Amino acid sequence: MAPNDKKNNKKDDGLIRCDACPVLCRIRPGKAGACDRYANVDGKLTRTDPLVLAQKVLDEDGHMVPFAAAAAGWDGSVVSQAPTFVTGIGATTTYPDYKPAPFIVSGEQDGIDMVTVVSEGIFSFCGIKVKIDTDCYIGPEPSPVRVGGEQVGHVTTAEYGSQMLALGGVRHLTGGSKKEGNTTCDVMLRLCNKEAVEMSIDDGATLTVQSGAAPVIDGVQEERMRVGCGSAAIGIFAPQWHGHVDEVIVVDDHITGVLSEHQAGRFLDMPPAGIRVTGRRSTPGRYFQVAEPGAGWGGTDITDPLDIIDRIDAKKAWAGLKLLMVSTTGEDSAYFILDDDLKPVPAPMPPEVRLVVDRIGENCEAALCSVLFVGGAGGSLRAGVTVNPVNLTRSVRSRLARVTCGGAPVYVWPGGGITLMVDVAEVPDNAFGYVPTPALVAPIEFTLRRDDYVALGGYADRIRTLADVMDPENTRSVPWRPDHDWPLDVGKQRDEG
Ligand code: SF4
């Protein structure tokens, strides 16, 4: 039930009280509360955004219309008879804890009675993981990430071909100053709603991050995600370089690869070229820390690749030796031939070598930012589903209940509680909100068989049909993404599995 029943809203000179979060706004007629999610409309507390339904659109053969085709020209009108999933977007919330979820909707799938419990969750404990596909150095781990001077997170462990940020979290939301909390909440909200956010890293770069968009690092838009580390690039392309060059050095801030020393070069019986790079040798042909991190070749601060050549062994190298130096994305490359003094002299790159350099670029994927929301479904959320909340956790854990976020699939972390993670790119647009406590508001749905729902202590007397609960004046529809599992299938899968 929406938090607008008369019992909970004291009226005074037209003011009404919103009890959908602990802020308890007193809202004047015609005005909205502090979060803009509720307004006083003709003396009635009203959710300002419509409830969002996700609907399957089928062609005449009963096949789903592809998402892009369905989305084009979709005006938000509800399609009658279309298979429909009620999302938590615009659903109102369960706060405070004693209330059942606003929508507990019955449905039928493959002859099985199903229930979807729908709510907007208030997530005090939540954070964001940002994956930035780039070789570029963005700053030291765990350097603070700031927006408007406030710390909103930190640089965390880099992953393969990507830099990672950990943003938000309860420490920044509530553990610092009010300004830090509000800035953190605003940044998380904008990122979750797929907006671009500019941020800076102490002793590092400035970034513009947006879900599904290329990162902009120090004003330069990244295009390519590296094909692999320098060692991996050597392994992948060694046979294609063999016979065309005598040595290849793939410059990388992580692992710089040296072909003739590398296992891949030895396998091809390449003679050692005697060119020693700077840095610490990890294993043959694999070097760490050849330079400082930076915006140069392969995420190093190198702009002249010869700077990482420590020495050339006159007993092994020879005049006329053909040397290729290249970055892990192929964006930087240079070709040299050793002269009689064994000094590398720039030379035009032969077409057969250029072909392989270009192939490195061809094998790079587009550099993107990915924004993943992580939240813990705690007190009021679980109590809105069942009188015995631990049963919900158990049913999620045993896959009797499927959790979704605006219909999008989530990953539920192992261990206790219901800590879920979702790629915001998979969630319908503008699905997230906030309250000024501060905390984020995210849609959440639990779908399970009706008999399982009753057995876990669900609010059986609050189950309604979609037709019963839907207000056509305040409902909007979005197309269902065919790449998402249909949550109501969980009932059949339970029987099969
Ligand atoms: S901040 Fe929003 S949800 Fe909280 S009481 Fe005010 S209007 Fe209601």
Descriptive overview:
This protein has eleven helices and 35 strands. The chain is α+β, with helices and mostly antiparallel strands. Helix 4 packs across helix 6 (351-362). It starts with 15 loop residues before the first strand and ends with a helix. Helix content is 17%, strand content 33%. Iron/sulfur cluster binds next to loops.
How would you briefly describe this protein structure?
Helices cover 17% and strands 33% of the residues. It is of the alpha+beta class. An eleven-stranded antiparallel beta sheet has the order 16-15-14-13-10-11-12-9-28-32-31. The chain has a seven-stranded mixed beta sheet with strand order 21-22-19-18-24-25-26.
The hetero molecules present are:
iron/sulfur cluster
The overall strand count is 35
Spatial strand order of the main sheet: 16-15-14-13-10-11-12-9-28-32-31
Structural class: alpha+beta
Cα end-to-end separation:
34 Å
Average pLDDT taken over every residue: 93
Oligomeric form: single chain
Low-confidence stretches: 1-7
| Rg (C-alpha, Å) | 28 Å
Number of helices: 11
What share of the residues lie within helices? 10-25%
Per DSSP, what share of the residues sits in E-state strands of 2 or more residues? 25-35%
The 3D shape can be described as: elongated
Largest sheet: 11 strands, antiparallel
Short descriptors:
alpha+beta; 11-stranded antiparallel beta sheet; 7-stranded mixed beta sheet; 11 helices; disordered N terminus; binds iron/sulfur cluster
